[in-house]
Amino acid sequence: MLRSDSPTSLMLPPFRGATRRIVLAALACFAMALVLNATPFGAQAIFWLILAPAQALLHGKLWQLLTYAFVPTSLLSSLFAMLSVWMFGSQLEDERGSRWLTEFFLAATIGGALLASLMGLAGLLYPSTVFTAGLWPAVMALVLAFARSHPEQEIRLFGILGIKAKFLVVIYLVFYFFGALGSGDRFGAATALFAALCGFLYIRFVPRRGLGFTASEQLYGMRNAYYRSKRQRAARKFTVYMRKQGKNVNLDPTGKYVRLEDEKQSPKDSRWMN
After folding, report:
1. How many other CB atoms sit within 10 Å of the CB of residue 89?
2. Would strands 154-157 and 161-164 be described as parallel, antiparallel, or unpaired?
3. Nearest residue to 188 (alpha-carbon basis) of 64, 51, 66
4. CB within 8 A of 197, min separation 6: which ones?
5. Is the pLDDT of residue 269 over 80?
6. DSSP-assigned beta bridge partners for residue 8
7. Which H or E run includes 10?
8. Cα–chain-centroid distance for residue 35?
């Protein structure tokens, strides 16, 4: 666990779990893009993976809501985005677990893409023919999640400059949005903004252990309740049957036999063993 009074050096955190899978998937897609760009059909193949509102929502290419995050943009931008996922994702994963980070990444990436695409289809701020790609929407969500969990945490950039997490997220947002809006990528800026919003809502309303763990607990609870009800019904039927035989039995609410205080018990008597 991170402590608010201990500085974190933003150098090389552990590279494992869901963080490693996300970064390695981005690296693999980067290498694949280099290979595809050398082929005649490379541009068309990449176009199937980037996020285009009309293509994703009107033409059934729903996979674009996730795959766009792994399509590289420029070399420097992609590497810095992967480095940010590594630095902030690994810290959040150490605290909350791999399942939580995976769910958070999917919720922010897909949720941000969906909301931004719906905004494009509605014709607000940008047309539905725009497109975007890159890990930066997920990075914005991860940085915001880290800053919300540890607003006063001091982060040392490469061991030199110390800055609090709440100020670092502002720097990230300002640099990214100024760069995106300066290049005319309003759709990319909206996607990052909505991804950060979805990440915030996930932290705010989803249990700490994640949706998967909560759903499994609910499922096991329903299963156990079903078996308890079956046992209770069987116990009631057994009680009625024994009364018809002229014998009284004492069963607890769960259906287990309870020996009466005045009933003698023999070690060799196995008639009422549960």
Report:
1. 26
2. antiparallel
3. 51
4. 111, 112, 115
5. no
6. 155
7. strand 8-10
8. 30
Distance CA 158, CA 172 (A): 16
At 110-126, the pLDDT tens digits run 999 999 999 999 888 78
Instruction: Report the chain's C-alpha Rg in angstroms.
Output: 28
The Cα–Cα gap between 24 and 82 comes to 9
* CA–CA gap between residue 51 and residue 126 (Å, rounded): 14
End-to-end CA distance of the chain: 45
- The Cα–Cα gap between 145 and 113 comes to 18
Residue with tokens 């763990």: 213
Segment holding 236, helix H or strand E: helix 211-244
Give me 55's structure tokens.
């293509």
Structure token digits, residue 95? 């605290």
pTM of the model as a whole = 0.75
- Confirm or reject CATH 2.40.30.10 for domain 8-206, answering yes or no: no
Q: Is 134 left (phi over 0), alpha (psi -120 to 50) or beta?
A: left
Length of the chain: 274
Q: Which residue has the higher pLDDT, 151 or 235?
A: 151
Nearest one of 230, 32, 8, 194 to 117, comparing CA atoms: 194
Range in 156-170, 198-212, 216-230, 256-270 the model is least confident about: 256-270
CA distance 31 to 177: 27
